[in-house]
């Protein structure tokens, strides 16, 4: 019986101890919560170190700054500029001679053979006409006119009254101005000229059938 009494005594002491513990917990003041950082402080650029004070926040590693500089190839390695310079010389030469020249004649002018790149550029050039039969190149003017008869034929076939620009005629025809002066003197064409220096600007065909002599009334009557 003494053993049972001892067990009851220990049980009561445990219960009383738990009650005191619960009572003690009710009287312990709650810990003061730490102030949480404001959203502005935790955002990049905000004041304070809110991101580091939050134990639940995940520290992000800064990404390395990429170099946005693009290193492109040189705009010109020298060879491209050399080829275009040679092509320009050939185009001007063909414009001056005003006749087709073969590949051998062009090579003689340059004093060097034409490589495959230059040949391709010449064939595709907008100011040149290539003849595969004779393997020759000719300058292509704005108007295929290089003689007085060709000029008259072109003006007669024109269906507009706008006339033809002398500046365009001079493109690829070195004798344009002299021929215009001659056709104007023979009254085959009409020419407008600048007031400052008298340079020809525009030309038209002169339809002589429209030239009608008018009697001024002073002619003697029969």
TrEMBL record:
Q: Give compartment(s).
A: Nucleus
User: What are the BP-aspect GO terms?
Assistant: transcription initiation at RNA polymerase II promoter
Per UniProt, the ranges with Low complexity bias are 37-57
Q: Which residues form a coiled coil?
A: none
Record's GO cellular component terms: transcription factor TFIIE complex
TFIIE beta domain span: 71-146
Superkingdom of origin organism: Eukaryota
Where it mainly occurs, coarsely classed, is nucleus
Q: Where is this region: Disordered?
A: 16-67
Cleaved signal peptide residues: none
> Mind listing the UniProt keywords for this protein, alphabetically?
DNA-binding, Nucleus, Transcription, Transcription regulation
Q: Which InterPro entries match?
A: TFA2_Winged_2, TFIIE-bsu, TFIIE_bsu_DNA-bd
Q: Name one GO molecular function term.
A: DNA binding
What does this protein do, in the record's words? Recruits TFIIH to the initiation complex and stimulates the RNA polymerase II C-terminal domain kinase and DNA-dependent ATPase activities of TFIIH. Both TFIIH and TFIIE are required for promoter clearance by RNA polymerase.
User: Could you tell me what this protein is called?
Assistant: TFIIE beta domain-containing protein
The species is: Orbilia ellipsospora
